[in-house]
Amino acid sequence: MITYAVLANPGHNRVYFEASKKLSLAELEIACRRFSVECRDFALAEIEGILYLTFNAEEPLSNDDLAWLSRLSFTYAIFELRKKESEVALIPIRKISSYYFNDDLNTILKYTGKTNELFTRLMINVALLSSDFYNTKDINLLDPVAGKGTTLFESLIAGYNSYGIEINPNVVHEAAVFFKKYLENEKYKHSLKKERMRGEAKSFTANFYRFEFAKSKEDFKAGKTLQLCMVAGDSRYSNRFFKKKMFHIIVGDLPYGVQHRNVSNQNQSSITRSPKELLNYCLPSWIESLKSGGVIVLAWNKFVLSREQMIEIFSRHNLKVLNDSPYTDFEHRVDQAINRDIIVAKK
Ligand SMILES: C[S@@+](CC[C@H](N)C(=O)[O-])C[C@H]1O[C@@H](n2cnc3c(N)ncnc32)[C@H](O)[C@@H]1O
Asked: What percent of the chain has pLDDT over 90?
């Protein structure tokens, strides 16, 4: 039996750090279900006044297990914990990091309404670990309510192809300008194609920003590239924007009915305070774009829609909602107006 202790990343946001302790344990438990050795006794432990997440493993973790443990949203440093009588020793274990971009891709941009980056990383991990694709190499992620791209950038850091839809064209334009500058500054070989799509009888228009990039000219030439595609358009047409069964995971942070309002059609005539209407309009189309065995993870504000209502909507669309512990342990307070939770549903 080996005891591991993980030092939690304090991040940039103290309020989220406090809230995230419980969430981190849930993320850890979901990850450990995929590990090659049996793990148990997940706990928060204070050692000399510093907080760690600890767990016991039957045998040493494999390299694949350590790679997953290294990329969990809270993992700052990993130790083996040894106890001898009253003495405690922490033996450092090297993290196995395989990030495609540095974290700064997601920390440079700051704006009102931005979803916390570490929380976003948690949602992506939970989605992939709960899907049939947790050890698949080429992952396609869709954020159907992408805002200025926190999920997309977090997904790119992890090395996944990333696709987003956002109804506000100015927001998409700003995200594209930022990303182009980032690629130029960091000297990634890249291309950007802009395209416009029109629905029949002017039902919709959408603007596409398609980035393809690689770390070097050689990789770019050899086709070893990653994709970022951002669509300025209405998410209910996602099945028109993207191929059927294209995505392994769908991850997003629904409008809260607070700073952001739901816009369920493009002329903005139908603005509601609840994500319910948005989901009813969009879910059929999102599900069409999701592979079987794929998972949707969405964050929402429980002050505007209960968990039971959320489960009812997803079940009605024939998705299997994962609703046992630790999937029920993600609720946390963001501020006075937002009590956030996530729903995890599998196709
Ligand atoms: C909570 S925000 C997402 C923030 C994002 N995660 C970020 O950090 O930038 C929700 C986004 O959904 C967008 N939205 C609302 N209705 C939409 C629709 N029908 N199609 C596409 N996007 C929509 C809103 O404009 C808003 O930017």
From this structure: 85
At residue 322, does pLDDT exceed 70?
A: yes
For residue 109, the tally of other CB atoms under 10 A from its CB is: 18
- The rounded Å distance from CA 114 to ligand 1 centre is 10
Domain with CATH 3.40.50.150 in the chain: 104-346
Ligand 1 geometric centre to CA of 164 (Å): 10
Does the domain at residues 104-346 carry the CATH identifier 3.40.50.150?
Answer: yes
Atom 10 of ligand 1, nearest CA residue:
255
Q: What is the pLDDT of residues 113-142, one digit of tens each?
A: 999 999 999 999 999 999 999 999 899 999
- Which CATH topology does 2-93 take? Alpha-Beta Plaits (3.30.70)
Beta bridge partners of 161: 140
User: Closest residue (by CA) to atom 4 of ligand 1?
Assistant: 147
Q: Which residues line ligand 1 at a C-beta cut-off of 6 Å? A: 113-115, 145, 147-151, 165-168, 171, 234-236, 253, 255-256, 260, 262-264, 278
**Domain ranges in the chain with CATH number 3.30.70:** 2-93
User: Which is nearest to 98 in space by CA: 151, 160, 53?
Assistant: 160
Mean pLDDT of 251-261: 78
> Among residues 140, 326, 143, which one has the least CA distance to residue 230?
143
What would the pLDDT profile of 289-312 be if each residue is shown by its tens digit?
Answer: 999 999 999 999 999 999 999 999
Has residue 14 got a pLDDT over 90?
no
Cβ distance 115 to 150 under 8 Å? yes
| pLDDT beyond 80 at 155 | yes
pTM above 0.85, yes or no: yes
Mention every residue, 6+ apart, whose C-beta is less than 8 A from residue 268. none
Residue with tokens 């040894």: 82
